[in-house]
Sequence to fold (448 residues):
Amino acid sequence: MARGGFGELEQAIMDVVWAADRPVTGREVVDQLAQSRPVVYTTVLTVMDRLARKGILYKQPAGRAHTYRAVQSREAYTAQRMAGLLGASGNPAAVLLRFVEQLPADQADKLRAALRTRRHDRAGREAP
Amino acid sequence: MSPLLAIGLAGVTLGVAAPRILARLGRLDQAPQATAYLWLLAAVGALSAVVLAGLLLLVGSSHLIIDLAALLETCSMALRAALDAPAGAPGPLLGLLLLTTVAAGLLVGGLVAGARAWRAARDQRELLTLTGRAQPSLPGVTVLDHPLPLAYCLPARVRGRPGPVVVTTATLRQLDPAQLQAVLAHEHAHQARRHHALLLVAEALRIGFPWLPAARAAHSAVARLVELAADDAAVHHHDRADIATALATLATAPAPTLGLGAAGPNTLERIRRLTAPPATRPGGALLLAGLIVVAPLLGQLLALTAPLLRVAGMPVCPLT
Fold:
């Protein structure tokens, strides 16, 4: 996905927050990010506040500053956002077109068996 | 035949008979994209018949037929005779009911399907922004770290930039490069042929008009046909066996984390179609299907406009 604007920074911030196993301050996130890229403190805080408004980060006052933590773990967040796509909540929306859906176990077994037979047949024909 | 009867017949043909016929013409699968359009056209045509019938019933009320006569500069009696619209008590009310039903269905279906798609697109873009990775070897593809082997695409963006094609790390592990390229070609075909828009229309129709057989059946038919169309597009530049193997691999991959809903019942059919392509061409079947949809569409328009045109040149009332 093309990431214009703050998309890439958002991802970098969430990587830091998700990797930490405790609430982090804006300063800690900035220090982490600064090891690999030039960052501006106020920009990072602005983006983190925006993530908090979107309900992705939870912002808590701690002394004179604030701490942030992820509302959901990375896995839970991904699973929740995928629910619509996977049809777990009824009909998947028309905005997502999946290549193929997973077959239920019994059908998958049948398909595997059919493919094995097919391969076997072909091998039989090719080697008289 | 009275215009109202003709419009009614056209409506029943499009709304009830056409979906049955389209579903039975197996050779239409050889032209999936065109057939998808025919499905939607049949449903929309049935609705247009309801609208025209509603208008005709409404016009039957004496006040409106006099207005229309003045507009056409003709005599109201001649107009009434030509349109053969039932005058009297239940007509206008029934007409209004028909028009309201269609308007409400369009509104509700459009809003519900649109909102659902918009929300899903917003969630997906957020998910991809926060957790998606670009892969230098795969331009335009976003990789998600996920244990389920998924491949999907979002619609092409409005401002002309291509929408993302998404694959998960599990997909990358299970497919070889040729198979992956075939899958990506399938997804790009969805985007290039505006399949998301077709499905959105079908979904809006299904939600808005559950009482109309054509609208009820169109959604699952279109969902199936766009997959066939994307498979056909991918076959142009990729090996059939690669697409079929990718389908089989991803469809039979164990789904470790999520209890999934109904699986695509078309998967086996798609694999069969790719490995043993039918030799026949759609030919006559497509012509027949086109005729069944287009003829009633034209018929209902003619049923209303022909009498109007006929009386428009008739300035004086024959009896007065």
